[in-house]
Amino acid sequence: MKVGDIACGRSGDKADTLDLTVVAVGQEEYARLAEFLTVDRVQAELNRVMPGTVQRYVLPGLLALKFVIQNALPGGVYASLHAGLHWQKAAIYLLLDMDMET
Amino acid sequence: MSGTDDRIVRTIACGAGFAGDRTDPAVKLAESGQVDTIVLECLAERTLVPGLRARRRDPGSGADSRIERRLMPILQSPASSKCRIISNFGAANPVSGAQRIQRLAKDLGRSGMRIAAAIGDDVRHLADRIAWDGSIEGDLLGAHAYLGTSGIVEAVENQADIIVTGRTADSALFAGDLLPYLDGSEDAFAGAIAVGHLLECSGQLTGGNFEAPGLPPLGSSDLANLGYPIARVFADGTAEITVIDGSPALINRLTCTLQLLYEVHDPSAYITPDLVVDFSGVSIEEIGPSRVRVSGARAAGRPARLKVSGFVDRPGAISDVEIAFAGRGALDRARRAADVLRLRLAHLPEQDLRIDLVGLNSVLGAASRAINSEPPEVRVHVSAKFDDAGDAQLAEDEVYALTLSGPAGGCGVRSEQRPRLEVVNGYIDRELVKPSVEWSNIP
Predict the structure, then answer these.
(1) Measuring CA to CA, which residue among B329, B321, B328, B347 is closest to residue B399?
(2) Is the distance from CB of B306 to CB of B129 less than 8 angstroms?
(3) Of A25, A48, A79, the CB nearest to B367
């Protein structure tokens, strides 16, 4: 099972900070996600392709988790050498495609 | 115009969520007769830059080039006379934007309109009093503070029909319209900011840029005609979010939660110029098809400083070049082309050169899934930074040279150069920033 089987998500950015939102499809799924998507696990996944340290926020009332990664996008979106601007809008798939232990 | 529930004090809509957004949704909103105010959010972080460059060439320019294209079809609709329009399409020169609108209105026989420019965001002259997060070495094109609601509220209280701003917090474009109709409490203000934050990205709230497990995505025709969001707002700042009757949309707990938290850092302290807002206790209830009720945003203080975006042109340029390979062995030839380019551009610092294979790894890089079949075509993408703009042509030349001296069949070269523009955040003491309103008259 992948994170994206029980959640949806979206990436955003402000200057060199990346933010990722994951929303669970239900209460039980939220509990599993909150247990699986630890700071360490998320940071290890994201650091494959970007620098920065992860800050996690839990939002049980909204069944959501929020990850904020400062300095992930050095120089901001416009200094990026990725093919095309705003590559980071796809960064949420780094989390949605993670395999969860079953 | 307040729908069926007489406790609704104001109905506000988002007719555009970025500078290049579709123009027809706002026209449909205006013609519906169901909304009091349409906000056109047209100024992303970077979108000020074309305006700043234009204003530097001609001090009378600098507003969004699309103003007339957006407004003409709205103002031509008779129903629009009942609708207020608020937009940050004033970009780097709201006063000039307001003057252009005045001329357009006159041409359309609507010269009685009250058009206000909310200004004061330009703080470039205060650059040395801004606490910058990074270096502003280079050419500081501009520095603009994020304004709050004050100018918009003043314009609303003086019966403005159209309000033009430059850099203003997106949520304030909405909250500024709502505030005079609310109960005066700080939590109602927080609710209005939440409404603005939810609506500001247009289709992203109504089913665009969205997929969720177990939910069929909106079809192509629905996405092509996607309804943009409206909020029916109560005096306490709670709101019902929906679209005008009959518009295709998907609005539910998931779409609204994603947008509520979009580009928010600490959800218990979302910092806006007027207010820090706590979103952690927000409740999103599904109350009908594509209809939700949002409540529970709380005020959590007022920030002492305003955020500033600085735009710095660093010396040099960035070159982006692509070349395609197709047919048998395309992937192998593309990989070898990339190897040749790494050898030819080996003199560039490692961090200033990036070579990707489009279709394989150009977006998620090393985290891309492995492919297990031969692609019919591959594009090699090179981006390189040069400290001297005069050297930037080299990347294109080296890629073109592959067509004669590289692996077989290189084709389809495309190339562009861009400035080394960087956005640097800063913070300024709010007392130094002086928002004001100018009413437009044809000069």
Answers:
(1) B321
(2) no
(3) A48
Per the document, the length of chain B is: 443
Strands B84-87 and B283-288: unpaired
Q: What whole-number distance in Å separates Cα of residue B216 and Cα of residue B163?
A: 39
What residue spans define the domains of chain A? 3-73+89-96
Give the CATH fold of the B312-422 domain.
Alpha-Beta Plaits (3.30.70)
Is the Cβ pair B261, A87 closer than 8 Å? no
ipTM of the complex: 0.97
Cβ–Cβ of A45/B367 closer than 8 Å?
yes
How many whole angstroms separate alpha carbon B190 and alpha carbon B186? 6
pLDDT, tens digit, 9 for 90 and up, residues B223-271: 999 999 999 999 999 999 999 999 999 999 999 999 999 999 999 999 9
Q: Quick one: tokens of B128?
A: 């040395």
- Judge whether B108 and B75 are in contact, CB under 8 Å: yes
**Cβ pairs bridging A and B (under 8 Å):** 136
Query: What are the angstrom distances between the C-alpha of B190 and each of B40, B61, B272, B278, B339?
Result: 21, 35, 10, 8, 55
State how far residue A78 is from chain B, nearest Cα, in angstroms: 6
**pLDDT, tens only, A10-68:** 999 988 899 999 999 999 999 999 999 999 999 999 999 999 999 999 999 999 999 99
B280/B275 Cα distance (integer angstroms) = 15
